[in-house]
Amino acid sequence: MADKPALIQADRGQDAIAIHLTNKDRFDDFASAFNAGQRAALKAQKFEGGGYQTAIVPDKDGWFAVGGVADPESLSSWCLAKLAETLPAGTYRLAERDPGPALHGWQTAQYRFGRYKKDDEPTGPRILLTRNAGRIDAAIAEADAVCLIRDLVNTPAEDMGPAALEEQIETLVRTHGGELKVVRGDTLEQDYPMVHAVGRAAARRHAPRLMHLTWGKAEAPVLAIVGKGVCFDSGGLDVKSSSGMLLMKKDMGGAAHAIALAGLVMNAGLPVRLHLIVPAVENAISGDSFRPGDVLRSRKGITVEIGNTDAEGRLILGDALTRASEEKPDLILDFATLTGAARVALGPEFPALMARRDATAAALIEAGKAHDDEPWRLPLPEAYAEWLASDIADTNNAHTNSFAGASVAGLFLDKFVGEGLDWAHFDTFAWRPSAKPGRPKGGEAYGLRAAFHMLQKRYASA
To answer: How many other β-carbons are positioned within 10 Å of the β-carbon of residue 356?
Structure first.
């Protein structure tokens, strides 16, 4: 969205079309203030104040818009999104109050993924005015971060392989500074052996790599952000079905979240020493694929028996989390499209959250609720750790029963996080299977805003 005109702008009294809000409970009183022709226009459009209903009402030589919301006094991120999707291009002003949190959905509602297909009916921007000018830059940055995740996840693997993820991180460095180190191809085998094993079967132009960006003052608290970058997942030799493989371009959604979150941290100038670590691979099938039954070394020294080559994301994260732990961070956050079990448990809307510390989990949930991006906490029960036992290695990468798949994957990751460190893990879907106002079908950010606003609060006094 950065290449478009700002969709939210400061209200300096310029000409704008008014938007009035109501709900079903207040609709009769709301409509009684209008003249007969205006009430007839509302009736003709079947507007009754229901959620996400919209209408255009004539007014002398012009018109104004009305929208139905749950509560006109307490706006959410999404309550103006339907208006932003349906109103004609132009400049608008909320009549009774400032948009507040609804600035977010106003912007994200106008997102379009147009890399491969031109919009059949292109429209100009719909601009919303706000009296809170000091909030504009932050609100734009947050919406841009969401739309970046959408762009990255929506892009097919041929154009969004490991090299393309590296280019995205290079863009962060060009924009905000910092230093990027990249280990690629067979040079991974020594220091990141599990990343190498998972990615070695891919074609050379999709060669595996691990990107490590550092930014911020050396003496600041260390914040590590890690993202799973499986740019396409065939399942490996435990190959997925065709239907299971269809959306696997989105399996780098964790990396997309990590990159977007790092950009928000840098843009906000949070007083942290940031370490962004993204292992990027394609889990391909070839004569060089890693196999069921293989035992892999890891950076931490833990040996891992491969019970399932389709449980590859946790392998590359294991090496990345080990590297992050070596910085003795104040906090590690990781994002991954890790398990179907999390989706069975929570559906697409709620990212599964696992955390070592209750206070960190509570802070993430609180921030998510406050910004319409609520994660749902799942446990890390030690009682299930035995399900990862191996007869010939320190651990297996997959368990053989069908229980608690998300939590067991979290327990595997926990083995690679340094002892005593504060760590939280998001198992996110990164995909919206059906559209809602402000949230089109396709790639989506889940947990991003919860994490960013928690970090803002956590490091505000640093």
So the answer is: 17
Give just the sign of the alpha carbon dihedral 403, 244, 294, 165: negative
Q: Active site residue: 82, 249, 273, 314, which one? A: 314
- The structure tokens listed for 272 are 């942290």
Based on the number of CB atoms within 10 Å of its own CB, is 231 exposed (0-12), middle (13-18) or buried (19 or more)? Answer: buried
314 is a catalytic site residue: yes
Read off the pLDDT of residues 65-113 as tens digits, 9 standing for 90 and up. 999 999 999 999 999 999 999 999 999 999 989 999 999 999 999 999 9
Q: What SS3 state is found at 459?
A: coil
Distance CA 314, CA 194 (A): 9
Residue 250 annotated to the active site? no
Q: What whole-number distance in Å separates Cα of residue 351 and Cα of residue 253?
A: 12
* Cβ count within 10 A of residue 316: 29
Q: Which residues contact 145 (CB under 8 A, 6 or more apart)?
A: 260, 261, 263, 264, 445, 448, 452
Q: Please tell me what DSSP assigns to residue 384.
A: G
Q: If pLDDT is split at 50, 70 and 90, which confidence band does 462 have?
A: low
How many angstroms separate the CA atoms of 159 and 335, rounded?
21
At CB < 8 A and 24+ separation, what contacts does 120-127 make? 123/88, 123/89, 124/89, 124/90, 125/4, 125/5, 125/7, 125/89, 126/7, 126/83, 126/84, 126/87, 126/88, 126/89, 126/90, 126/92, 127/5, 127/6, 127/7, 127/8, 127/9, 127/90, 127/91, 127/92
**What predicted TM-score, i.e. pTM, was given to this entire model?**
0.97
- Of the listed 4, 39, 240, 377, which one is catalytic? 240
Listing DSSP states for 301-356 in one string gives S--EE-S-TT--HHHHHHHHHHHHHTT--SEEEEEE---HHHHHHHTTTS-EEEES
* pLDDT digits 0-9 by tens, 109-151: 999 999 998 876 667 899 999 999 999 999 999 999 999 999 9
Nearest to 208 by CA among 166, 169, 174, 239: 166
Cα 417 to Cα 396: distance, rounded to the nearest angstrom: 17
Residues 45-55 pLDDT 10s: 999 999 999 99
CA distance 355 to 336: 14
